[in-house]
Amino acid sequence: MLNGSKQLSLKLLLVSQVAFWLRFGVNAPVLALFVRGVGATVTEIGLLWMIEAVGWAIFEPIFGLVADRFGKKRLAIYSIVTTSIVYMAFTFAPSIWHFYLLGFALTSNMAAGSVSIRAMTIDMIPQSGRGKTYGRFMAVVSLGMAMGPFVGGFLADAVSYAAPFYLCSGLGIISLVTLLPMGYDESQSQLSFPSATSDRVKLLTKPFFILLFIRLLFMFNMNFQRGTLPIFLHENQSLRVSETQIGFYMGLIYFTSALSQLFLGALTDKVGSKKLIVFGLGMSGLSYLSLIYLSEVTPLYLLGIFQGVFFASAETSMMIYVMTIIPEGSTGKAMGAYGFFEDLGGIVSSSSLGIIYDRLGPIFSILSVSTVLMCNAGLSAFLLNKDDPDPTRQEIGAKATPRMNKK
Known about the structure:
Layout: H1 4-27, H2 31-36, H3 42-70, H4 72-89, H5 96-124, H6 130-158, H7 163-179, H8 186-192, H9 197-203, H10 206-235, H11 243-271, H12 273-289, H13 297-325, H14 331-360, H15 362-383, H16 391-406
């Protein structure tokens, strides 16, 4: 159980994280269409996602190493301030080259917040009933993100494409104000658990590398959903949905994902992460195939409801699985590595999906992402071990407990 001080800190972190990631939700249905408006091709937009992924890939491992020493809270504050400025700068970009520079600047600085906030969350969540607690925590974060596409799509449709970016800057202020008073104790987290070379060796285990590769392939889903899918829906002759409708559809995915996390975390504690990872990946791949046959908006909305459940199953279970196989005291480095493989997946998927869309057509881009996800489900079923807690984690915790009691 958490004491009163830690409970308050976790609540403040929750509010800060909601505002931090809500910006991503507001931006999700808008940015690709905004860039498309300056005359960019889908291949050029795919290159933008690739450049953003390069920013993540370069700086997440660096910030992962720095976070455990310099301070996770300090990095989060730095990230919030700089990314709020970059979001504002998007509104002044006149060409695709400016978007490339801003995209790299955004993800390079957002990497500091992503690594540090994830690591703080792992540090502060109790060991007992971890899945249930993490599921509820992320459900609230996802509910905040679910509002983003609704708001972003509506503002782009009713006001201008610049309005969502102004909102993102304002949300950064909210995230900063709630993070500053948070009493997160960096020193106790570092002293409670050994962080010597032995921990770094234990981090580089076979189960960890397998999970990282599965996470890499999962990014095909993330980048297709963010970059290619809005364009496909908007330009599809059978659908021709508006920005508001695209925002509503993506909002449904986030909303049902958030509701699903309320029970998926507890379900993970009972059945294990592996089964839910396989289920989420496989069903996500199958669900994309149905996009080929849709001709009305209502079935698209129904599909979004189910896709949210599948997405949450894979996303939440992967993070809970990681918690069981990384040593305490190395959360910053672990999240840096986790983010780095996400970024590699982003680089590969964003560039390839854009090229496939432009050269082979939108149907082939859907078939590609569906195939990758279903193959990833098969790899997860055969390669992932049962996600019982790593004995080394328990040994580390046992050794650290007397040290904490002496204080």
